[in-house]
């Protein structure tokens, strides 16, 4: 299984650190040349591999960590996303509900990435919190996931566990997805909730 993070701002870097902490190789890409990320990637660890966007989207699982407004541009990198799992880490803050027509923003991401299985996740925590070791006082920091594809949700839940988090699946995008998305000037009820799960 191969992994990529598209978007290498503070949230993308925080995710990259989670991969590096666990010795898992992941490609990172933006619309810029890989050389522009080389120093930051090297500072995180040798598992973080800068690539072009065209190279990165060859991965099986792709974390979409760009501004919500930029997702259609990333989607143009492939004519069809069949066989890929997209983890939607975007937040549609500032995009008003009428533009979303009452739908979760991840549905529009799913439409743009035609053929992919979309899982909403890893977006409810501030980057500064996501950046930290998810092991907290003997528990694990919770990551909320929502998807209309149970197999994809299970796949990302297993990856979240490998990264040290405690995944909590919330159901489909129309139910759980609305709990962890931003829209307009509002936030879903679980956004910013930094919860720790104990066994």
Automatic annotation (TrEMBL):
Single GO MF annotation: oxidoreductase activity
Q: Does the keyword section mention Oxidoreductase?
A: yes
Q: Which UniProt keywords apply?
A: Oxidoreductase
Establish whether keyword Oxidoreductase is in the entry. Answer: yes
List, alphabetically, the Gene3D superfamilies matched: NAD(P)-binding Rossmann-like Domain
All residue ranges annotated as the Pyrroline-5-carboxylate reductase catalytic N-terminal domain in the record: 3-91
Name of the protein = Coenzyme F420-dependent NADP oxidoreductase
Q: Which organism is it from?
A: Reyranella soli
Classification of source organism: Bacteria, Pseudomonadati, Pseudomonadota, Alphaproteobacteria, Hyphomicrobiales
